[in-house]
Amino acid sequence: MALAAAAVAGAAIGMLLAPEKGTDLQKKLKDEANRWIDEVKKLVNTGRELKANVEDEMDEIKSNLNPIEN
């Protein structure tokens, strides 16, 4: 997350220093921010799916261990 935030900040600074009209710059910044937001959402969803898969696997392992313990 920190790396993504640093990349966004770097891109924003680079765009701010570029000689462009204000409206063009605003559009570029908005588009770039939306792209990064989409990427973060994808990463969060991937993390949630991974967590759910790990929990399912752990439940299966626990259920297979219970008969051994009894």
Overall description:
It is a single chain. With 70 residues, this protein is an all-alpha fold. It contains two helices and no strands. Helix 1 runs antiparallel to helix 2. The radius of gyration is 22 Å and the shape is rod-shaped.
Characteristics of this structure?
mainly alpha; 2 helices; rod-shaped
Write the layout of secondary structure elements.
Elements: H1 2-17, H2 22-69
Quickly describe the structure.
This protein is mainly α. The chain has helices at residues 2-17, 22-69.
List low-pLDDT spans.
none
Number of beta-strand segments: 0
What is the mean predicted local confidence, pLDDT?
82
Radius of gyration: 22 Å
Q: Count the helices. How many? A: 2
Task: Report helical residue fraction.
Answer: over 70%
Q: Which class do the helix and strand fractions yield?
A: mainly alpha
Termini gap: 45 Å
What is the beta-strand fraction? under 5%
H/E element sequence? HH
Summarize the biggest pleated sheet.
Answer: none
Shape: rod-shaped
